[in-house]
Each structure stands twice: as C-alpha cells, then as structure tokens.
Amino acid sequence: MSNYKKLTLRRGKEQSLDRFHPWVFSGALTSVPEGIEEGDLVAVHASDGRLIGVGHYQIGSIAVRMLDFSDRTIDRAFFDERLANALALRKALNLARPDNDAFRLVHGEGDFLPGLIIDIYGNTAVMQAHSPGMHFARNIIAMVLTELQGINIANVYYKSETTLPYKAQLDPQNDYLIGGFDSNTATENGLRFHIDWLKGQKTGFFVDQRDNRQLLQHFARGRKVLNMFCYTGGFSVYALRGGAEEVVSVDSSAKAIALTQANANLNFPDDSRHSAVAEDAFKYLDNMEPGRFDLIVLDPPAFAKHQSALRNALRGYQRLNAKAFEKIAPGGVLFTFSCSQAVSKEQFRLAVFSAAASTGRRVRILRQLTQPADHPINIYHPEGEYLKGLILYVE
Questions:
Q1: What fold is seen in the domain 5-68?
Q2: Distance CA 205, CA 196 (A)
Q3: CA–CA gap between residue 100 and residue 192 (Å, rounded)
Q4: Strands 246-251 and 224-228
Q5: Integer Cα distance of 144 and 193 in angstroms
Q6: Digits of tens for pLDDT over the chain (395 positions)?
Q7: Thinking of the domain 76-188, which architecture would CATH place it in?
Q8: Which one, of 198, 44, 42, lies nearest residue 132 by Cα?
Q9: Of residues 94, 148, 153, 157, the one with CA closest to residue 128
C-alpha cells in the first residue's frame, strides 16, 4: 500500500478518471492540503473516499498527471516495468535495428509515463521532463535506461531547461546524467544524420517525421523539391535518395542551414542537386517564381502552443498554404503539416481548404498523415494526437 498525500475530487469530477484520462485539472480538486509540493506523489480519491489512483502533483491547470489507476507504489520497479514495456513496443515495431537507431522510446501519456519524453540516438538517450515529478525521478529513470535489456544505452542526456513549468523554480540544468558526449551521428532508415541534442530544438531531431520522410522519398523522383522550414534537412536528404532532380532547403536559421548542408554531405557528398538558403519562409515564397517547384514541403514549427494562440495560428496556416498553392507547378505535390497540439485535424484541414479555395486551384487529398507508431496515442487521451499532415495533388 502506498502512503502518499491525499487529494480529493469534487463530486462528479471522477468521471473522466474512471475512463482513465490521465489528467486531473485543478478545478476538479476540493482543495490542496498544506504540505503538498510540486512534484510530490499523491493519491487521488473520489468524493466518496474511493481511491482512483496515484500521480505526480504540480501547480497549474493540470494539477495531477496520473501514473497508475491503482494503489501502486511509484518506485524503481515501476520505472523498470514501464520502460521495458516501451522498449518491447519499439522492438515489435522493428525500430531498433542496424540501419535505424533513432526513435522515440517514451512518448509521455502514450506510454503511460505522463510528463516524460525519451528519444534514442545510437547509444545516447535524450530525456525531457515536462512535469516536476519526472524531473525529480530523472536519476532513477537514467539508471533504468542504461540497464534495459535488449538495447545498449551508454549516455543519458537530460534536456529540460525549456520544457519544465518555469513557475516551479526548479532551475534544471541541461547535462549528462550518465556518460558523456560520444558521437552525435544517428541512422534513420539507412540515412545518417548529425543530431544536435546539446543546442538543437526539442531533443535535437524530429523523429516524428520519419515515416512521412520515407513517403516523400517515393514522390521525389524527377521532381524539383522545395523543403521549407527544413531545420536539419531530413526531408531534403530523403528527397535526394528518392531521385529528386533538384532539392532546395530553406530555413530562417543560419545554424539550421549549416546542419542541413552537413547532413546532405554526410549522405550525398558534394551533390550538386542540393542547395540551402537562410531566409524567412514567407519572404522566400513571395519572391519565388511560380511553377519553379513541383514538390513542396511545409513543416513549420508550432504556430499555436496554447489555445489562446489558436486564431492567429489558423490564419498563419491558411496564409502559408495559400502561398504554396499559388506558386507550385501544375501537377505538383504538396506535403503540408501542423505540429500544434492546440490545432485539431479538422481545423487544420479547414485552414488548408480555405487556402486552396482562395487560389482557385483544383486540389485533391492523396494521403492524410499523422505521427508514427513510436509516438503512440493513449486511447483515453486523444489530446496526444498532435501531428497532422496532408499530401495534396495540385492541378
């Protein structure tokens, strides 16, 4: 029996938890007793006193992230079990293999570890905590990672300076918990990439686009490809392997452009088909000659991180896609994405529809895209579906 501090729900507020939704909102609690602090393990009870489960407490709109819907002790054995289960799924998906050592091992609620993200790059695990509770558990998790059977993790890098709630005043330091810098090269579907987990965005690479990059490869043959918001150049490298006639990578960050060039050269040394430009995306599209490209990738950073930014985000998606529809060659293919969790599939599709309608082009949906299987969605937590994409044929 766990002996965690007790939180009680208001009457009727247990319904979502009885359906295994992993979040308790602050408004659902009767009160927060004195002595409960950020990151504490708590036992959540219904208004009738019934125990619902245990989780991590934090200050904010999400007050508790549920770890288990039983009277479970959250200890080393708990993390052993959850991480072993997460690895078993990736093994079943055949993601850990000689020609692919870059994948997501833990995807928060999708792996029943809310507040925790772990990406694997070769023998390095990059860990991000999104809750104080996972921050406090970081050393146990790191130890479990290096002892997991069936995978060789020698280094664990902790990268949570920008992901933890700043009000918690935890002052996390990005640093190695175990091991140190080894090699920053990882392999995805036989292609090699430099991963900048020290200073790059997120954990250093967007592993969530792996399947969609592979799809792009099949469309690339003989096409002139424009990869907007290229970041590390993942789509560009796959397009080169797919036999593209020309690939142009665009990003506003000069550092991203340097990394894209390095990744292109790592796989296709001195390939004259590829060039990279450091420029604002909207400015580049404005100045671009119509019909110059017949395959365009739009993979912008999240336009809306929170619900409050939703309206502006949808306008941004509409404007960006309208530019692409105006400029893409007849018979062109557009890969367009939103990684904003606040934007639903329907809202994104409506923004793209409005963009197409404003240009008068005839447009057909070839594929609807989402995140890959190593970013699983807990069926009781539909909010975990954040990546949305469309492959469009533009006449």
A1: 2.30.130
A2: 7
A3: 9
A4: parallel
A5: 27
A6: 578 999 999 999 999 999 999 999 999 999 999 999 999 999 999 999 999 999 999 999 999 999 999 999 999 999 999 999 999 999 999 999 999 999 999 999 999 999 999 999 999 999 999 999 999 999 999 999 999 999 999 999 999 998 888 766 788 889 999 999 888 899 999 999 999 898 877 788 899 999 999 999 999 999 999 999 999 999 999 999 999 999 999 999 999 999 999 999 999 999 999 999 999 999 999 999 999 999 999 999 887 667 777 888 899 999 999 999 999 999 999 999 999 888 899 999 999 999 999 999 999 999 999 999 999 999 999 999 999 999 999 99
A7: 2-Layer Sandwich (3.30)
A8: 42
A9: 157
Q: Determine contact, residues 296/324, Cβ cutoff 8 Å.
A: yes
Domain assignments of the chain as residue spans, ordered by start: 5-68, 76-188, 206-394
Asked whether the whole model's pTM tops 0.85, one would answer yes
Token couple for 5: 């501090």
Q: Which of 331, 291, 333, 298 is nearest to 317 (CA)?
A: 298
| CB atoms near residue 101 (< 10 Å) | 19
Report CA Rg, the chain. 22
210-214 CB contacts, 8 Å cutoff, 24+ apart: 210/102, 210/103, 210/372, 211/369, 211/372, 212/335, 212/337, 212/369, 212/389, 213/188, 213/189, 213/237, 213/238, 214/189, 214/238
Q: Are 303 and 317 in contact (CB under 8 A)?
A: yes
For the domain made up of 206-394, give the CATH fold: Rossmann fold (3.40.50)
Q: What distance in Å separates the CA atoms of residue 377 and residue 192, rounded to the nearest whole number?
A: 28
* CA atoms of 128 and 335, how far apart (whole Å): 29
Q: Which residues are catalytic?
A: 339
Q: Which residue has the tokens 């059977």?
A: 149
Residue among 202, 231, 185 at smallest CA distance from 337: 231
